[in-house]
């Protein structure tokens, strides 16, 4: 960065309680211009793309995956295609993911994201998640003789995998709560009413992995995939699905996109400066 600006743009402050890199005044100037370069490039490209960017996109996915992975996708996509409406339906797919291949109403979606056990053919596998038993950080209900469980609906694959793991050693349990509402399920577990099952990314405040349960009754893994149902692949739909693929495969983050082919030198400078500042902890990805 300092080769670009031909001056010192940042340093390190070890005084008092503040430690780490800090920007000098020239560094703030460089950051301002770097953001402007990247923003102007995006605005220029979008000005021409948006001529045909109309219509809507309808996506189906379960409640838990929508909360964990969808927000970065919507943020990036809305910035690029503000005239395209994105409708996300979660209730039906949260309640029933195993027999989707037999349902005639799937054609109302452009695409769905479902468990690989949904019996849908030609799934594009997005991720493989190891499942864990999860409990409240301040509670020990998993030690009760009859294990209390809070689970998703009967057709949820996580539920099926968890109950199968317990059945292998005849672990006694009782299901105290069934829901398709992710925040409610977390709340029940957080308050010590039950334990549940899910991947690591499902953890929230005051929720922990139950190591002893995961050693004794390891649940295994689940795979989730994307099924394209649209008759026609429009440009906005293709972009949206590519954003989804990237976010699912990058642990819920969406890397800064670059134009295909060779990046113009000025734009490359903008990306380089922002990338270096982010690695130094001077900005975060959302500030780009």
Q: What key attributes describe this structure?
A:
288 residues; alpha/beta; D-Maltodextrin-Binding Protein, domain 2; 3 domains; five-stranded mixed sheet; three-stranded antiparallel sheet; 9 helices; 12 strands; flat
Characterization of this structure:
By secondary structure, the protein is an alpha/beta fold. It is built from 9 helices and 12 strands. It has a 5-stranded mixed beta sheet with strand order 4-3-5-12-6. Strands 10-7-11 form a 3-stranded antiparallel beta sheet. Strands 1-2 form a two-stranded antiparallel ribbon. α2 crosses α9 and α3 (63-80) packs across α8. It starts with a helix and ends in a 9-residue tail after the last helix.
List the helices and strands and how they pair.
Blueprint: H1 2-5, E1 10-12, E2 21-23, H2 25-49, E3 56-61, H3 63-80, E4 85-89, H4 91-95, E5 111-115, E6 124-130, E7 132-136, E8 147-151, H5 157-167, E9 173-178, H6 182-190, E10 196-198, E11 207-209, H7 211-216, E12 221-228, H8 235-249, H9 265-279
Parallel strand pairs: 3-4, 3-5, 8-9
Antiparallel strand pairs: 1-2, 5-12, 6-12, 7-10, 7-11
Helix pairs in contact: 2-9, 3-8
